[in-house]
Every structure is written in C-alpha cells, then in structure tokens.
Protein 1
Amino acid sequence: MYLEGLVLAAGEGSRLRPFTYSRPKHLIPLLGKPLIQYPIEDLVSAGVRDVGVVIGYFGDLIKDYLGDGSRFGARLRYIAQEKRLGIAHAIYRGIEEGFLDREFIVYLGDNIVGSGVGGFIKEFLEKGSDVHILLAEVKDPRSFGVAILKDGRIVRLVEKPKKVVSNLAVVGVYIFRNPDLVSRAFKDLKPSWRGEYEVTELIQWFIDRGYRVTYTIVDGWWKDVGTYDGLLDAIYMLLDRVNRSINGSISEEVRGRVIVEKNAVVEGDVYGPAYIGENSYISKSTVIEPFTSVENNVKIFSGRIARSLIMDHCELDLNKARLVDSVVGSKTRIRSARELHGDIKLVVSDNSLIEI
C-alpha cells in the first residue's frame, strides 16, 4: 500500500533565535545538509515519494533549496500555512489543499529518527491501524506531548504537562489511514491555551471514539531539533553513526571516523567522529576534536574546537583558545588577538564579528 508524506516546516523556530531571524530552522546545516533534508530522505528511503511540504516562515528559502524534490528522489508539493495555528492545523491544510487523499505519514521537519520510519510504516499497515504514533522515553516530558498507557493501550495524550504524568513523549511522526476522518476530527477541535490546534487533541479524538490507535516505543535515538542543546545533540547522534570517508586533502593526523568532503584541505589534526565540509580549510595550527561539525566553505586558522557546530562560510582564528559546546552561525568571523588558554562557549548568530 502506497502512502503519501507530509513534512511540516512552517514554524518560526523561536527557541533557536537569533539564528532563525535570518533563516528557517529547517535550513540549519547538519553534516553538510540542512535539517529538513533528513526527514525527506527518510521518507523516500521508506518508499514515500509524493511529499507535501507545509511552509510559512521563510517558506521561499525552503522552496528555493528543495526545488521539485527530484534530486532527493521525491515529488514535492508546497502547501502554505500562513497562520501558524499548530500541527493539527498544518495537517488539515494538507487535506484542505487536496494533497492528502489516502493513507499518509506526517513527519515534523525538525525531527530526526535514527532508525528511519520504514519499519513503523510496515507496522502500521500490518496492524490495520487508524492512527499509529511513535513514543520515546524522555527525562523531562514537560516540553513534549506525552502518552498515558493502560493495559498496553493509549488512553490519554497530554500536551506539555505541567506535572509529570508520563515519561513517554510523542515523537514527531504520525501515520493516519483516512484523511476524511482526520478532517472531521480537526473540525471538532478548539484551540488550546496556546492558541494552537494540538496534534495530541487530534489523535485523542480517535482514541475517544474507539478507533484503533497504536504505537511503537522507539528504542533507537530520536531528536527534536528545536533548541541549541537539541542542535548539538543531533550533531553528536549523527556523527556517532558515520563511517570514515576522506574525499579531500589531508596532510596531518586524521584519526578515527572522520568525514572530509571534496575540495576540503586539512593540514591540522582531526579526531573523530568529526565532519569537515566541502571547500573548508583546517590549518596546521588547528585541532578539531570529536563531535564537531565544520560545514562548507569554512576557514579555521588556529585554535581547538570540540563538540561544536560551525556553519557555512565562517572564518575562525582562535589563537590558543578552545571553543567547546558552541554553535557559530554562517558568515561569522571570530578572531582572538590574545593567547587565551581556556575553554570558550559561544552561541553566535549569522553574519557576526567577534574579536577577543
């Protein structure tokens, strides 16, 4: 049975400001490709090729990057959500525009599921579910929608509970059988206290009426990339599964699982897992430590960098300083004129200039 896909990418990404003042969060690069590319490629690998992309904030930038989707093996259609009224409303827009007319899978454009969604689609089909969702254990469930289970069934979904009622967060992937039923459910909803139509309430509509709502508890890693910490966690998780690949030029020590993309020049030391993007330059006075992603067209003239994301077109001259747990926006220049012998942690927006 062939499913359609819907990737949601209309949000403003307020928790990732100041980066999202100049771009949608879905275009933040992770290991050489923007965040939104991960769910699209995941859907395609699961056999889902007709994909709607719900856009709003900086939507033209997303369209310009993704195009018609053919280079990813997808056929993309863009659906506008001019007012960001929640996930359930975004799903309804896909139905309202006539795109969703059969079984479909919704994938939040800022989520990455390490195991991929192919197995979950198979489970949905085998169980004959009306709705299938993914759950994952989290330490602090107050930032998520959570599921309350009883006798192996979902009895209640609660959006961002103030008190801990469950540690099972609802992952940003939802599979529905009947778009007409989803439309009926949406029209029965009322906005939450946040002024949004919540996907948890949409699914609760199915639970309350006795429809077959099933779930899988994800045993691999999953990441909602909505904060700085989430962004760095995603880098750690993605790098943790890479294999060594050297396509650029290296002249010093490159140890472990390191990716060096084409036309990159590495004269310094790199310790994996780490990523060096296309056309980037790592000088002999530089050390790249594990869990660092240096994106495309970056120049690093000195210093040490660990557990950090350095976005495209940056220039860093850190002298003796060590940059750790940092996120540096595109086209940013950082220069240390003094010999600072210690760790520095920075969160720097695009197009910034920092002199230390």
Protein 2
Amino acid sequence: MKKSSRRRFLASSAGLLGAGLAGLPVLAETNRNHSSERNASGMIYRTLGRTGIRVPVVSMGVMNASNPNLVKEAWKSGIRHFDTAWIYQNGNNELMVGRVLKELQVHREDVILASKVFLHDKRGVQKDKDLKDIFLQRFHQSLERLQTDYIDILYLHDVSDPSQVNAPWLTDTFSELKKSKKIRWAGFSTHAYWPELLKDAADKGFYDVILLSINYSMSHDTASIEAMNYAAAKGVGLIAMKTQCQQAWYKENLPAEMQKFYEGKIMHSALLKWVLRHESIATAVPGFTTFQQLEEDMAVATNLEYTSDELKFLTDHNVQLALNANCRFCGKCLPGCPHNVHIPTLMRAHMYAYSYGNVHMTRQTLSGQNGLEACAKCDVCVAQCVNDVPIARRIGEIIPLLG
C-alpha cells in the first residue's frame, strides 16, 4: 500500500474508531512514545516510571503457568520481568520461578522479580502489629521460594480502596523493607475500578509501581485513561494485567460463525496491542500458558502496529457489543444487591474458574467475605450490570464451587 493510501486508510479507520471508542488512542502512532526504544533484536523497551529500569513491553504473568520449560523459553525469548505471588498455586508458582532462574544461572541483577502479598484471608485481624507480622511472614516465604535475597517489586495484592494502601503499618513496613534492601520498589495490584486509587497514589508519591487490570472492554472509559496518564506523569510505573479480557465474552455473545475467527491469534494480539499502545503503560504481564501463546505475545513485543485483520476485529460492531459482557469490576452493580454481596469478586472468581481453569485461584478468591453464601440462599438475583454481564447466571455457575 502506498504511503498516501495508507494515510487515507488510517484516517478513515480513525474516524470509525473515534465514533465507536470514545476517541481513545487506539490508532495512536507508537513512535509518539519517546520513552520507547528497541534492543538489537527489535524488542521494544520502556521505562518503568520513577524506578528508572528499562523493561520489554511484554513480560510474563506466571500465575497460570505450571510448566518450567515455558518459563525457560520466556527467558530465552527475551522476557526479563516475571510476575508471581505468594498465593499462586500454594507457593509452587514462586518455587518454579526460583528453580528455573537458578537452573539457567541467571544473574540476579539481570532479572526483575515481582511478587505479591495477599491478606484478604486475614480480614478479621484487627491489630496493625498482627497484620504486619503476617505480611512479613509471607514476604519472607516468597524470598525463600524464589531463592533470592531481595524482590524487585513487592505488591500488596488486590487493593480496592485507598485506605488499604495508606495504612501507616503498611507504608512503614514497605519503608523498612526498602531500607534493609529486601525490596527495591513498593507497589500494589488492583482488580477494582481504579481511577481513584491511581490518582491518590500519584498525589501521595509513596508507591513506585501499580499493577492494574486494563483491557479493551474499557475503551470508552476516559476516566481510566486520564488516571493512567496522570499517574504516569507523576512518575508511577504502570504495569497492565488482564490485558486480553480472559473471559468467555466472545463465546457467549458473538455469532457462532465469528467465534472461530476471533478466538485465536488475531483477538489476543489485537487486544494486547491496544493496551500497549497507551504510552502510560510500561509493560504488560499476559498470562500465557502455552508456547504458541508465548510466541504470539513476543511478536507483539517487537511490533505494535495493527494488521488489517486486527483493525477489523477492533472495529467490528459485534465485538464491541459482545465486550459489554466482560466484567470491568466497576462496582456499579453493588447497590442493587440487598445482601451486600461483593459481585465483582464473584465475577473474578468465575473468570478464574471458567476462563483460566485455575481452581486454586478460584477457591482463594471465594475464600474471603464476598457473600456467595447469601447468593446460594437467594431465590431471585435482582442485581443488574450497567452493561451486559449476566450476573445471575455466572453466580449460579460458581455456587456449586462453595462445597
């Protein structure tokens, strides 16, 4: 295609996308990101906020992976940042990462290790000292499993409210771990609707890195994009997770003849590119579990330009309608439940169970005070999604998991 023709094509496509996607930078030229550079192999690197470190735009979310050879291949493919957590696979996930890196004889300074401390199962604990003790105990378990003296990025996992990360006992603990060089940077992860969290953290300036859930189903959400840009401008390093909308929205809502076209490479690469074309995101941690998925994600790491098929997918009217069934964890359904059930948590548990096939994370997500027991006793679900998430049906599918 000639350059002039290509410009006309992009301009036309941009008009369509602007109308359908609230003007978000789906077609923003990647060279506008002046912080992006390429290494000798062509992989795109970006700076992770005030940490100053350079990371490939594609990293590895290890949560669902159980094959050490996949981690080895990820390293050999150029991935240098591995995201795990104390809670994943009852600790076996961290054990696997530690063993693989040791077997590969990776120099510690050449890899970025991120892990998370999970505290939702200790919601009944009231004393700050007890919470701190639990936090540190789990952190030190992570160090031992990963066979390392320090963790580069340590997160408090699954934050939903600024009060959680602003608690003095937590900030003091992070500061102590930094001073003792047990961690390099402090952060938190969030699956909730996070604009308020990002802006609060950016203004306070304590947290270095935030791991957030973002995907194409949020393409109309200008508040989220503005919050990301604001936090990045303040020096917060932003890492994206849940980038490929790993829920069965396309199987549930797309016509049968379209599902085969959209369930594979085109869908996953288009969705990952859409996230990474936002200049505020330094890297993403897609949770690939196969060598084919690794190969597809690494292709994105060297080229963020859309193919014609990817553009067709992103602009397809049926796709945009189907995405309304993807839970964005916005919480707008909560006032409609008379039993105060935390519906976004249940939708995330459904995602782990039916999209990831991750039984352990499903059970862990359901282990907190989410109200699923009340759902099991309720005759009619009256909670409604502002989009098209089938709340009642998905709750009905996870109620059997209570036992």
Protein 3
Amino acid sequence: MRKIAVNVCRLVLAVAFILSGFVKAVDPLGTQYKIHDYLGALGLANMVPDFVTLSTSVVQSSAEFFLGICLLFAIRRRLVSLISMILMVVMTLLTLWLAIANPISDCGCFGDALVLTNWQTFWKNVVLLAAAVVVWRYPLDMGRIISRSNQWIVMNYSAFFILVIIAGRSLYTLPQFDFRPYHIGTNLREGWQRMMDGEDSPYAEFFIERMDEGEDITEQVLNDEGYTFLLVSPHLEQADDSQLDGLNRIYEYSQDNGYPFYCLTASSQRGITRWQDITGAEYPFCLTDETTLKTIIRSNPGLLLLKNGVIIRKWSHNALPTAEEMNGKLEGSDIGDLPSDNVASKILWILTWFVLPLVLLTVADRWYRRKNNNPLNKQNIMRKKIVAGNWKMNMNLQDGIALAKELNETLKAEKPNCGVVICTPFIHLASIAQFLDQNIIGLGAENCADKEKGAF
C-alpha cells in the first residue's frame, strides 16, 4: 500500500510539473510578462533587465518540465524527490502570499491554458506539497520505468526537446499552441460586438484609435469585408528592426493590392517618430492598450492578417511571409485562408516526435532486460571463472618447470570447469611455455624486480 501511495503521488507530481513546464515553455514571452508582474508587486520591476527575466522564463519552464520527466521515469530518485519537495515548499509559501495580499490576479502556473484564482492555486499547491513530501520520504519506492543505463537518453532528449524544439522555436517564431483569446481563427468582430452589447468578453480593452486623426476605427477595421494587415508593437522603442525590408515589402504589397495596413502600438508620439525615422514607415499608426497588444501576439513587432474580422494568420518578425508566398492577390492563395495545421495536428506532432520515441525506448529497454534476466539465458551471459596463480620470485627456473609439468598433467587428467592461468617471472616465459598445453593452462607474465627473491 505504501508503494502504491508513493507512486500515485509521484505520477500526480510528474503530470503537474510536465504540464506546467510545457505551457510555460511554449509561451516564453508570456511567462516573462508574468515574471514582470511578480517583480512589479515586489517593487523590483525596474531593477531587473529584460534579458534576465526572459532567461529566467526559459530556464524555469524547462526545469519544471525536466523535473516532471525525471519523476515520471524515476530518474535520480533521491535527488529529484528532494528538489521537488523544496520547490513545492517555496511555491506554496509564495502562493499563500499571493492569496492573502492579492498583488496580481493569478500566478500563471499553467500559463494561459488554465487560469486559476490565487486561492485555487494555493490549495492546488498544498496537495502537490503533500505528494512531494510522501515521495521525498520514500524515494526508492518509486518504480523505475527504464533502466539506469538508459536514463541518460531520456534526460538528454527531454532537455533538448523542451529547450530547443519548444521554448527556442516558440521564442524565435510564435507559440506553437496559442491559449489566448486572440488565437488564429478568432472572430474579433463577434467577440467585440458581444462586448459592445454588454456581455462579458475578453475584448473589453481592445480598441484601435488613429493617432493622426484621433478617431476610434475599431468598428471600421473589424467590419471590413476584405483583408487587413495589422502590424503590432507594444513598444516601438523596443521593437526589433532587423526585418525592416520584409515589413516595408509587405506594406508595399498591401498598398499595391488595396489592403488596409495599420500599425498598432502603445508608444508615445516620440516613439512613433523615432520608428518612422529609422524605418521610413508611411503606414498609419494607431493607439491600442499595451497589455492587449502583448496578448494579441508574442512578438515585437508581429504581423496579423484579418479577413472579415477573423484572425487568419500571425507572423513573428523573424518569420514573415516571403515574396514568393505573397505573389498575387490574397484571394484564393494559401496565405489568404486559415492554415491547415490545427491543434490536433500539433498534438500528433508532439506525440510522434517526443512521446513515441520515449515509449519505444522504454519497450526496447524492458524487452532487453527481460531477455537477459531469463534463467534460460544465464549460460550465455555468465562470465567464465578463472583461477590464476603466480609464484613471484620464490622459485628458480628448474622449480618452475617442475611445477608447470605437474599442473599440466593433473589438469589434463581432470579438466576443471574454469580457466586456469599461471604467471611466471617474465624471463622464464619461453622455457615454461615448452611444457604447457595451452588449451588447458593459460600462460601469463610478471614483471621483474631488482631483488634476489621474495614477493616482488
């Protein structure tokens, strides 16, 4: 019963860590924003550079995922269980403070995939802390899924997958899973209209106000029956300007084909002027809520394509559409429609390239262990015992020859079920070898010492 309890607790912890780490790693910028919220609540927001918070985001999410995998496979059981308990003690105390003081709305433990209240998060952590204590108390009761000799494969592959394939790719392009209310396929027109009708809506802070005219054009943009490009940059002062040629090319394309193009930002006029000086931008700039812009797209800048008020495409500034992809009108083109890769296909991709290899490794590992532990195969894998003797410098050549002859004749008459080896002084090898049947007795050598005789 104790082992069952320990392994149930271990699986609960593993699933929680894996899910928490994955949804954070798939959205590193979102996790960075949440870290900024924590620092702001502590009055430290202006003291920590962005690269530190972003690095913390990637390391934290990857570490949680990695810890969950180690728990699942029972890798380094004592160390991993200790780290898990320490982590849960810290997180439980932190979420207790959040629940009492309520400095931020939610802890972000599951990113945007599952939003819990601060008190819900605290009680969730109490349960996980109890599970962590049980696992820490009896770490060796966790049953291994894979042998120790192959655990390094699981560890290295999991670390590479979460750091490079998930966090790195999501950071360079866009999150592979978008849990926010502005994901591809969202009908902004309907959502905004429900908000205007007084219904609860996540689009309450969404507005588009032209800077040059001071006019709210939200309804105009969302009700447009054609295509509209939206360049999104929460802060133009911090925007990446490495892809200016691509952005200007897309703007010229929109002008040539009659598609509206707007830049949405929360920057001041000074920041806009600086961006225009750097880029030569001629497109209209619109004011939008900063938090909303960060929620819309995890890229600064990022590009959206709307069709009839529906988000049909999103691009990071690192992965803008090429000139070949935007050749001709959007109507009837691949880019002009919703992408074919849906959530199901993305989940299948993860199952194929991460889960399936680990399953195959586990099956192969268990098969190999079962085969080698089979008593019928013991005779094939048992090493043959060897009995070896040496006389160092305690006999002269004639005595050594006499002993070798005696051993040779004795073992020829009664063959043992082990190997037999005699080791002579090095200078006696050639002489002793003449009197041995080396199918019966093996011959080994010793080195020499500058002594007359003795155990040297």
